[in-house]
Amino acid sequence: MNAPPPPPPPDLTQLRALSTRLLLEDAEQHQIVPGRLTAVAQTYGVHPRTVRRWLDNARANDGTYTPAGRPHFQLTEHMLNVVARWRGNVTRAHEELTAEAKADPKLPPVPARATFHRAVHRQLNRGQLAGLRAGEQARRAFDVFGKRERHWRNYAWETDHVEASVKVSIDGHIRKPWITWFVDCATDGICGLAITPQTPSRESILVALRDALLTTSRHGPFGGRPQRLRVDGGKDFLCRTVDEATTVLGTELIVLPPRRPDLKPTVEAVNGAVKKMLFADMPGYTEAATLPGGKPIDPDQQLLHFEVFVALVLDWVRRWNTEHTIEDLDGKTPAQVWAADPTPIKIITPRDIHTFTLERLGKPLTINNDGVRWRKRSYVADWMVGRGGEKVHLRYMPHHDYRVELYDPATGTYLGHADCTNQISPATRRALDKARRREADQLRARQQKAERNRTARYAAVSQTTQLLRLDNVTQEQALEELRALGGTSPGPDALPGFLPLPTPTDGWAVPRPRKKTGKDTP
Q: 112, 104 in Cβ contact below 8 A?
C-alpha cells in the first residue's frame, strides 16, 4: 500500500511576516519580553540582527514584512516593441537589439540571450506571447472563463450556425451542409434546428425558430417561449423579421460581440459534440486523418445523400435529448432535467407561429381572377373561390417562392396558403440547371485565360539584376492582339451610348474660327 504524500513544507515568508507583525504590535504596547528577539532568531536559525532588519523592513512597508527579491533585468519599452515587431521571436529580437547596441554605444547594453529570454517570459505571460505569434485567437486559448449560472428552463436560449464537417451529395454536387441550432441553456436540450445545403440565411433561422417554439416536435418536450435569446452579431440574426419575432414573443434579444464563442458556451458545446459523436463516423468527414500531401485515405468512399444526412442528424438530436447523459447535469439527460424543472412553460400554438415567423409584405394585395399577383407570379388556392376583389396581407418564408401565406388585412386572421401556378417541371429544371452550369464553366474558363494573359511572369534570379519577362511576344503578335482587343483607347467603352452631334445647317449659329496671331505662327 502506497504511503500518503508528505505535507508541503511551511511557507517561511508568511511565517516571518506573522512573527514580524506580532513583534511590532508588542513593541507598540511596550510588551516585548527580554530575549524575545533572540528566541525568534533561534527559531528561524538566523542572527538577532537579521530579525531587526525584518522589523525595519516591515516599518518601511506599512507594517507588512516584504522581502526584497533578487534584482532582475527589466525590458525597456523599445525592447518590448522589437519583440512585438518580430511576432514574439525572442531570439531574433535579441539579435537585432545586440546589433543596435554595438552600433550605438549610447544605447543601454543588452544582456545575454538566456537572461533576455527569462526577462521576456517574466514580463509577458504565455497568452501575450501566443497573441504576438499567432494573433488574438491563439491568445484566447490561454484565457480562463467562468461558468454561467444555468437558472431554469426557457430562461435563456442560445443559437448559432455550424458548418457540418461532412461532404454530402446534393443533386450530383458535393457540398457541406449547415445546421442552425436553438439550445436551452438550463438543460442543454436542443429545442429546434434547421439544416440547409447552402450558407444559412434568415430563412434557416426562422425555420429553426418555428421548430424550437413548438413543444410537439420530434425532438422531445422542449419548446415554449424563452425569456432571453443570445445571438452573435451576424446580419442574418439581426434582420427585421427575427427582431419582430422576438419583440412579439416578449423575448429579450441579447446581441453578443462577434467571434466570442466563450459568451455562448452551451451552443458551442453542441457544435463540438455533434462533430465528435456523429460527423466523425460518417463518410466524407473532412477532418479525418490523411495521407502525406493531404490526400484522403479512401478517395473513392461513397458520400451520403442529403436526405440520409438529415435523417441521421435528426436521430442524433433525439438521442442527445433523451438518451445522452451529461456530467454537468449530474449524470442526467436533458429530457430528465427538463421534466424535473417545475417552471411553467408558455405554450406557442402552430397557428400563432404563422404570424411572426414570416416576412411580411408592406401593402395589401388584391385577389384577382388569376389569384394573388406577387413578384410576377400568380398564387392561387381553393379557398379563394368567391373572394375576388378582396384585399389580403401576404407573408412568406424567404427563398420559398413556391408558397405564400395570406391574412385578412383588417383583423389579421389567417386565411390559408396559396401555391404558385405554372411551376417548372422537373425535366425543365434539370435542363435549366445544366445550361446554367455550362455557361458558368465557360465564363470561368474565359476568366482564367484572361487572368493568365494579364499576369506577368518573370525569370528567377539569384542576384540583384534587372527582371526579365518570360511572356514576351513578337511585334506582329502584339499588333494583332491589339487589333482584336480594339486598341488601347478607352473612349468607345467610356460612353457606349453617346450620340454624336448632327452637322450644323444654314440656320445654326456656329462659333467663328479663331484668328491667327503672330504667336500662333511656327
A: no
Q: Say whether pTM exceeds 0.85.
A: no
Q: What is the pLDDT of residues 109-126, one digit of tens each?
A: 889 999 999 999 999 999
> Locate cell 504596547: which residue?
29
CA angle 368, 373, 378 (to 5 degrees): 95
Cell of 159: 443559437
Residues of the chain with pLDDT under 70: 1-3, 7-11, 30-34, 354-357, 398-399, 424, 485-499, 516-522
Cα–Cα distance for residue pair 132/134, rounded to 1 Å? 6
Of 105, 82, 76, 77, the closest CA to residue 95 belongs to 82
Cβ neighbours around 329 below 10 Å, total: 16
Q: Which amino acid is at 73?
A: F
SS3 359: strand
Number of helices (H) and strands (E) in the chain: give both, helices first.
17, 15
Residue 501, amino acid: L
3-class DSSP state of 191: strand
Distance of CA 236 to the CA centre of its chain: 13
For residue 416, report the phi and psi dihedrals to the nearest 5 degrees: 145, 180
Residue in 348, 343, 273, 350 with CA at minimum distance from that of residue 313? 273
β-bridge mates for residue 419, sequence order: 380, 403
The CA distance from 431 to 429, in Å, is: 5
Q: Which three cell numbers stand for residue 253?
A: 434579444
- Closest by CA to 412, choosing from 350, 349, 352, 346, is 352
* Residues 192 and 208 sit within 8 Å (Cβ to Cβ): yes
